[in-house]
Amino acid sequence: MKIGIDKIGFYAPHLFLDMNKLAVARDVDPAKYTIGIGQEKMAIAPITQDAVSLAANAALNILDDKDKEDIDFVIFGTESGIDHSKSAGVYIHDLLGLNPKARTIEVKQACYGATAGIQMAKGHIALHPKSKVLVLGADIARYGLNSGGEATQGAGAVAMVISADPRILALEDKSAYLTADIMDFWRPVYSDTAMVDGKLSNEKYISFFESVWEDYKVQSGFGLEDFTAICFHLPYTKMGQKALRAIYEQGTEEDKERLVANLEASKTYNKQVGNIYTGSLYLSLLSLLEQQEELQDGARIGLFSYGSGAVGEFFTGVLQPGYRKYLNTYDHEELLASRTELSVDAYETVFEDTLPADGSTVELEIESDPAKIALSGISGHMRHYVHKDKK
Questions:
Q1: Residue 256, annotated ligand binder?
Q2: Based on the domain organization, do 215 and 285 belong to the same domain?
Q3: d(CA 118, CA 275)
Q4: Over the stretch 121-145, which tens digit does the pLDDT of each residue have?
C-alpha cells in the first residue's frame, strides 16, 4: 500500500519586508542578505496572526468536505505554540469543522516537528487505510530587531493531507535519522525570541545531513544518480546549497547539474517568505513541485529534515502519475504577489506590537487582515479566533 502526500498547501501573512531595504537600514551590504544568505523578502505576521491561524488558513485552502469527514488524526508540528498544555491542533480542529471522532496533538522538536508528524501519520494509515491525517507545520521565526538572526526571520504555514494511495507524493519506507544533544538553537519558556549559535548550527546541520545521507545509502543502495532532486529544510536558502555541496561530488557532473538546478527551483517560495521553522522543508518541496516544470511523474525526491537541538532525518518520496493536477500553483503565486510591502519603520512597529503577557483582555482589529481566519483577541486568559466565512 502506498502512503504519502495527497494534498499540500501553504499560507503566508499579507505583509512583507524587502531584504534590500532592511540591509540599508541596518548599514549592511544588501548582497549579504540577498546573496550571502539567499533571502529576498521576509513575511511579517501582524498581531492578528499566530501559529494557529496561519496553519488553519493553510489547511482551509486545501480541504474539502470529504477530507473533513475522513481526517481522524490532526498532528501540528510547531515551536511557536500558544499554550503549555492545550494542543494548538485542537483550535484548528474546531476552526476547520473536522470530524469530532479524531485524535489531535501538537508535536515539538524545533524545525523537525512536521516531519515527526508525517512519520506518525504513515503508521496510523498503515493500520487504518481509509483514514486521512492532517499534518501541519506553522511558525513565526523571531530573533529580535537588530539581532544577528533578524535577516532569517519569517512567518507561514504548510498543511498536508497524508493518505493511502496519495495523488502527489508516495513516501518510501526507508529512512535514516539521528539525535544528539546540541545547544545550537533554543528558546527558553521565558523568552519570546530564539537564541542561536549560528556557526555551530550550520556545522551541525551539515554534519547531520552527511551522517543520515550515508546511512540512507547503506539502507537503500541508492546514490545521487537515483534522485531527481533533494529538498532541504531551509532556515535560509543558502543553507541548502551548503549541504548539497558536501555530497554532490559523489555523483557525475550531470547529477550535480540536475540537483543544483532543482535546488534553485525549490528555493523560490522560501526566498520570498523566510524561515518558517517546521514548515520550511515542505515549503521547499512545494516550491520544487510548482516551480520546476520539467519534473516528471515517477521522479524520486530526497527530503532532509533538521531540527536544532538536534534531530535530523533523510527520507524519500516518488511523484505520482498526474500529480500536477492536484497542486494549487496559481493560488500560491497569487498569495505571494498580493502581499503589502512594509517600510522598515512599519515592520519594526509590527514586530513590537505584541499580545499582553499577563492575560489581559484585548480586542484586535481584524478587518485589515485579509486572512479568512484570524486571532480576534484575548479574554479570560483565552485566545479567540474568528473564521470570517462563518460569522
A1: no
A2: yes
A3: 20
A4: 999 999 999 999 999 999 999 999 9
Please check if 61 is assigned to a binding site.
no
Q: How far apart are CA 133 and CA 120, in angstroms?
A: 9
- Tell me, yes or no, whether 287 and 201 share the same domain: yes
The per-residue pLDDT for range 162-217, each reduced to its tens digit, is: 999 999 999 999 999 999 999 999 999 999 889 999 999 999 999 999 999 999 99
Phi, psi (rounded to 5 degrees) for 8: -155, 140
Residues 55, 25 contacting (CB under 8 angstroms): no
Domain count, the chain: 2
Half-sphere exposure of 309 (CA within 13 A, CB side): 15
End-to-end CA distance of the chain: 42
CATH code for the domain in which residue 269 is found: 3.40.47.10
The total of other beta-carbon atoms located within 10 Å of residue 240's CB is 27
Strands 300-307 and 229-232, sheet pairing:
parallel
* Single residue among 279, 307, 322 that ends a domain in this structure: 322
Q: Does 161 lie in the same domain as 262?
A: no
C-alpha grid cell for residue 23?
A: 540591509
Longest dimension (CA), the chain: 62
Based on the fold, state whether residues 165 and 177 are members of the same structural domain.
no
Residues annotated catalytic, as ranges: 79, 111, 233
Q: For residue 356, what are the domain limits?
A: 3-169+327-390
48/64 same-domain check: yes
One domain, residues 287 and 267: yes
Q: Do residue 181 and residue 270 come from a single domain?
A: yes
Is 251 marked as binding a ligand?
no
| Domain termination site, one of 322, 352, 382 | 322
Is 221 annotated to bind a ligand? Reply is no
17 and 43 fall within a common domain = yes
